[in-house]
Write a structure and sequence with these properties.
Length: about 300
């Protein structure tokens, strides 16, 4: 998954853990329990598809090398006996085609290697009745055929993996979207009941709903906006960051989310002014600063305008 997807899924897992750690919430609430079960199932599917995305190519290469090593030795053993038979029977065609050293067999490209093994098995089958004195039996030919088939299957793994990765990538996108909709449209609404009945529990839920960006996203400032009186998160707050970009002043504007979160990325180091504006609330100005390597957290409370 991408860094952004990892951060989002981490948040989903935090929410999942929240309900696991607070079983009383879902004990008698059938709707919330059902929604939590849906989230858990989605996370399990995401984990499954993530495994498909992270196929161990090094492990594949190691398995392929080991399989080719064993098959090469079998090919060389059988072709040596076969060539001895060819010399005794003056069969130059067999001698010319299968008189090959072990090192050459090992260096063959995949397609050539498989074709060589299949041709050897076919030719051995034609003369099998006469090959017993040369320590070649029908079981040897069957073993060669089976090992060649298994090696061919190994060669097809990368194609299958590529296909599976593409499917997994799409499935993860779909599952993340489904989980996002489930939280926004169902679980968040299920939890609204606890805003007044258990504010501490509800605040903990909101914290679990925060997405913590990976370090690589160059996060500069993040925080939360709440109502000063109710402590409820405020959505659609206009947050303006003003900062120095070189010698000139610049600004970026964001809007707080449904859980009051906001964040800014790629703001230069130095002093920064944050301006918070929302209809029916007093304008709020906060002076802060950005320091390289770490993001600055700014949590604020906005007061309702007296005349609103």
């Amino acid at each position: 998954m991408t860094d952004k997807q990892d951060a989002v899924v981490d948040m989903y897992q935090e929410v999942d853990s929240f309900f696991v750690q607070n079983p009383a919430l879902t004990k008698d609430d059938v709707i919330l329990k059902n929604h939590h079960n849906q989230l858990t199932a989605m996370l399990e599917d995401i984990a499954k598809y993530n495994q498909a995305q992270e196929f161990d190519s090094k492990g594949y290469a190691k398995d392929k090398k080991a399989a080719k090593e064993k098959l090469s030795e079998l090919i060389f053993e059988l072709s040596s006996g076969f060539c001895s038979f060819a010399v005794d029977t003056k069969n130059n065609v067999i001698s010319e085609e299968f008189d090959t050293s072990l090192s050459i067999v090992k260096r063959m490209k995949d397609a050539e290697f498989v074709n060589y093994a299949n041709r050897l098995a076919t030719e051995l089958g034609k003369y099998i009745k006469d090959l017993s004195p040369y320590h070649i039996t029908a079981d040897d030919v069957t073993n060669l055929t089976n090992k060649t088939a298994k090696y061919t299957e190994i060669l097809h793994i990368p194609d299958e993996v590529t296909k599976n990765k593409a499917v997994a990538t799409q499935k993860i996108k779909e599952l993340i979207k489904e989980a996002h909709d489930l939280l926004d449209n169902s679980i968040d609404r299920d939890m609204v009941h606890y805003k007044k009945t258990d504010t501490e529990l509800y605040s903990e839920y909101l914290k679990r709903r925060e997405i913590h960006d990976a370090p690589t996203t160059a996060l500069s400032i993040k925080g939360t906006v709440v109502d000063a009186a109710t402590k409820e998160p405020l959505q659609h707050v206009k947050v303006t960051a003003k900062f120095k970009a070189g010698k000139e002043w610049a600004e970026k504007v964001k809007s707080s989310t449904h859980i009051g979160n906001f964040q800014f990325k790629f703001i230069p180091d130095g002093k920064c002014k944050l301006i918070f504006e929302l209809e029916y609330y007093d304008k709020l100005v906060v002076d802060t600063a950005v320091h390289g390597g770490e993001f600055t957290r700014v949590d604020v409370e906005m007061e309702k305008t007296i005349n609103s």
